[in-house]
Amino acid sequence: MTKSYVIKPELGKEYPVISHGKGIYLYDKEGNRYIDGSSGAVTASIGHGVEEVAEAMYAQAKEVSFVYRSHFSSDAVEKLATKLAEWAPGSLNWTFFVSSGSEATETAQKIAIQYWQEKGRPTKNRIISRWMSYHGITMGALSMSGHVLRRKRFTSLLADYPAITGPYPYRKPEDMSLESYALACANELETAILRVGPEQVAAFIAEPVIGASGGAVVPPDGYFQRIREICDKYEVLFIADEVMTGVGRTGKAFGIDHWGVVPDLMTLGKGMSAGYTPMAATIVSDEIIETITKGSGSIMAGHTYSANPQSAAVSLAVLDYVEKHQLVEKAAEQGAYLLAQLKELADELPLIGEARGLGMLCALEFVKNKQTKEPFALSGGVGGKVIQKAFEKGLLIYPAMGGIEGVAGDAVIISPPLTITTEQIDELISLLKEAVIAVQQELQDKALI
Ligand code: PMP
């Protein structure tokens, strides 16, 4: 291979070069085939190589690809915003377009702070977030993220926003009912707000289902309903980070829809354009936009590529495809099948502590001791080994390892395209099983389990 000057995740490592993709499969230049069992980073939700999207891309490129949002709007952007207003719950009718999930959560943070400034309450400028969460890699988004591993190098530069822990049913106190656990976790938010004072708090941000930092951790019923009540009581905006869970991934349009709760702001990314273009969004309520319109009249955020017609046309084609092929409903149905298969694996293999998930966002958590749920000393290490083994067998899965060393968080995410068939799920499961058994054997051989 000729020398590469691309800065890759692991410097010095050679990565296979992909030549093309079709449906749930990716093919490299050496002729190897991979099942995209995680949709990349939970992104390629309509599968690879969809013709309609390629056509929409070309049609828009022939008209115009870029106009600057300070000069013009475009049909593509207007149509996309209208569609998102139809999809989104409550009065979440207004979209601020950006290009990545991190930009979406940064923008949500800024809009929340600006909202309170416009209301004449400028001290309400703190965000409360949760440990075991991920909201993005830029400094503002990372400040909100309770992802220990990703924060570590920059801790002294970050705001201390993670203040509470989210519900983690697998590791709840055994003598507590799920119902009271849900309330106890939600009530931590009330304590956190009272500690800093409601007049200091602009917003609370949470992922409806915890993704990269925990691995498809689904909250118990009642949690988000109580969170909404607390936010209302103390006039704190609720931001649902739907970058991973949005656009059908969990079997509903948005993750938060499972609990009938309407946030004040919502962020989207990943599945919104299914990997066909960098596109993300911050969706905002009528009340917030009316307040800012009456106030300064302009939101202090934005990027060069915000609301460009090229990405908007692509995202629109992706949403059309999701609607036309009823992929939200399909994610619910096929996701239930996928989870049932994963639970069978968990029953069979001692290395798997739990199989969990919602819709087509599932995970396996690995433990040293299934009875005591004792995690491995090196958090993330076993998940990493399973990912490597699966890769060698032609299956892609995604790490979820933001836990604290030795305190869980050793999980992998399984989140194939929403288009996956039952036979393809069986194919995925059989490769995954082989990978877990191979790692189990290796650990046994080294007397580590
Ligand atoms: N929020 C959530 C919930 C995410 O899962 C991610 C990405 N894993 C982000 C934000 C950041 O998105 P991006 O990587 O596109 O910046």
Which features characterize this protein?
single chain; about 450 residues; alpha/beta; Aspartate Aminotransferase, domain 1; Aspartate Aminotransferase, domain 2; 2 domains; seven-stranded mixed sheet; four-stranded antiparallel sheet; binds 4'-deoxy-4'-aminopyridoxal-5'-phosphate; pyridoxal phosphate; Aspartate aminotransferase family protein; PyrdxlP-dep_Trfase; aminotransferase; PyrdxlP-dep_Trfase_major
Q: In short, what is this structure?
A:
With 449 residues, the protein is of the alpha/beta class.
Overview of the structural elements:
- With 449 residues, the chain is of the alpha/beta class.
- The protein folds into two domains: 18-49 and 326-445, Aspartate Aminotransferase, domain 1; 52-324, Type I PLP-dependent aspartate aminotransferase-like (Major domain) (Aspartate Aminotransferase, domain 2).
- Helices cover 38% and strands 16% of the residues.
- The protein is built from 13 helices and 14 strands.
- It has helices spanning 39-42, 51-63, 75-87, 101-118, 139-144, 148-151, 178-196, 223-233, 286-294, 309-324, 327-348, 381-392, 422-445, and strands spanning 18-22, 25-28, 33-35, 92-98, 126-131, 162-165, 201-206, 237-241, 265-268, 280-285, 352-358, 361-366, 398-400, 411-414.
- The strands form three sheets. It has a seven-stranded mixed sheet, with helices on both faces.
- Helix 2 (51-63) packs antiparallel against helix 10.
- The longest helix is centred in the last third of the chain and has 24 residues, at 422-445.
- The model has no long low-confidence stretch (mean pLDDT 96).
- 4'-deoxy-4'-aminopyridoxal-5'-phosphate binds next to helix 4.
